[in-house]
Amino acid sequence: MLESGCEGAGELAEQWARVRGRLRTEVGEAAFRSWLKPLTLVGDRDGVVRMAVPTRFMRDWVSGNYADRIRALWKSENPTVGGVEIVVAPPAQKTAASQDAGPMDSDQPREPAPNGAAQTAPAPAPSERAHGTAGSAANDSGLYETPESGGFDDISAPLDPRFTFENFVVGKPNELAYAAARRVGEADAVPFNPLFLYGGVGLGKTHLMHAIAWHIRARSPRKKIIYLSAEKFMYQFVRALRTKNTMAFKEQFRSVDVLMIDDVQFIGGREATQEEFFHTFNALVDQNRQVVISADKSPSDLEGVEERMRSRLGWGLVADIHPTTYELRLSILQAKAEEMGVAIPAKVTEFLAHKITSNVRELEGALNRIVAHATLVGRSITLETTQDVLHDVLRANDRRVTIEEIQKKVAQHYNVRVSDMSSARRARAVARPRQVAMYLAKQLTARSLPEIGRKFGGRDHTTVMHAVRKVDELRATDAAFAEDVDLLKRMLEG
Ligand SMILES: Nc1ncnc2c1ncn2[C@@H]1O[C@H](COP(=O)(O)OP(=O)(O)OP(=O)(O)O)[C@@H](O)[C@H]1O
């Protein structure tokens, strides 16, 4: 219930909704969201309208910068209003008063702090403030930040519910990054700061960051976590500069328990943002708050990033995610197929794991496509339909291995000279490895038969065709030979 003197509560709330609307138009969306959106109506008494904000810092700012305007707007709505008072209400109380939508978004007036003692409540310290119950309530809905945080909800990106530790398939290429991420998610004290995850596109950096956040959220729902891309960080900063709200910006970032910045390579070359990022980073690390960073390169290789920043980024634990191996790709496919509840023949998963070597995102995309296709046309998944549906992706992935690499690997394996791949020698000891290399060139690259022939000492395309047939025949009749060739193939595919 609103503490209401001269006005009915409903009427006051309606007036407040109009005041808010006009404030929003006057100050602009950015400033409104940062400063005025968190304001909630408590009530009025003796001609003074009382509104609450969640922190003392915010109260000072709003009182110093907007009080006159707020008073004037109130007066124009209701001439009996003689003044306004901005008070601090701790987040829990404010939640009761406002939940996530401000009165403007609602037809109903909201409950004030239960004991009506909002104005006497001390302003909590930044980290305490971060721990309000409103935070947990908001985060239960899957959104990442809290309505009481004065713009946090605007800053942190939502988390993908699929990106958990349980859904992350661990293999040699990512085991260090996974172990480090788990440690950060599970540890009570900050284990290393920052955790710097790096690796190529689509290899699971974002997945691991979200998994850390989910895990911390589950263990300590009151912790304030911000996850966002470096680009969004820059955008927020530039916006804060433009609207002269850098204080709010700093306050928001420096009061978190865990800060996660994805794709930090994009921060390179932008000095003012880098500077701000550096200060934010230092402030958090100094306060022993966990920082997690991801990038496509190691700290020392980040281009356009100042030396002091690069060195600081490498102070904690630097964990890289390597390109996937065949085994990891196969496990990921099997796990995803199971998750989707579809039966996929082993032949198909093996084929995909062999062929789609670029990254996990593409692998997932390929799987989704074949499953969608099979569902649509109502037929089961076979190797043929897979090849058909994915011909474009498969071709793009084929270009990874060069014929030269194949020749080198095969020569090494059979202990012959690389030059024998192009020589005219016909002895079985060199002719067979040459045929295997031709076969693999056909399998692993997008080169045509004549092109392959040319690379093998200018041989005719029929010779290559013969080699491919011969190797196929031998594979079918000689298990040891087949195993040999498969091993080579796997090694070449990385
Ligand atoms: N080991 C893994 N197990 C399960 N899924 C994975 C694994 N690695 C990556 N993925 C999946 O692959 C997709 C791409 O991963 P993610 O977005 O985390 O990549 P990234 O490294 O952040 O890429 P970018 O550099 O483009 O941001 C996601 O759907 C993710 O769930």
Brief summary of the model shown:
The chain has 494 residues and is of the alpha/beta class.
Could you name the key traits of this structure?
alpha/beta, 4 domains, binds adenosine-5'-triphosphate, disordered N terminus, four-stranded mixed sheet, 23 helices, five-stranded parallel sheet, Rossmann fold, 494 residues, 9% strand, GMP Synthetase, Chain A, domain 3
Structural account:
This protein is an alpha/beta fold and 494 residues long. The protein has four domains: 3-123, DnaA, N-terminal domain (GMP Synthetase, Chain A, domain 3, 2-Layer Sandwich), CATH 3.30.300; 172-321, Rossmann fold (3-Layer(aba) Sandwich), CATH 3.40.50; 326-398, Helicase, Ruva Protein, domain 3 (Orthogonal Bundle); 403-493, DnaA protein, C-terminal DNA-binding domain (Chromosomal Replication Initiator Protein Dnaa, Chain: A, Orthogonal Bundle). The chain has helices at 9-27, 29-36, 56-77, 91-98, 126-129, 133-140, 152-155, 175-186, 205-219, 230-242, 246-254, 271-286, 307-313, 326-340, 346-355, 360-377, 383-389, 391-398, 403-414, 428-444, 449-455, 461-477, 479-493; strands at residues 3-4, 40-45, 48-53, 83-88, 195-199, 225-229, 258-262, 290-295, 317-321. The strands form two sheets. The protein has a five-stranded parallel beta sheet with strand order 6-7-8-5-9, sandwiched between helices. A hairpin with a 2-residue loop joins strand 2 and strand 3 (48-53). Helix 1 crosses helix 2 (29-36) and helix 1 crosses helix 3. The radius of gyration is 31 Å and the shape is elongated. Residues 1-7 and 92-153 have low confidence and may be disordered. Bound molecules: adenosine-5'-triphosphate. Adenosine-5'-triphosphate (ATP) is lined by residues 163, 167-169, 174, 199, 201-207, 263, 296, 332, 360-361, 364.
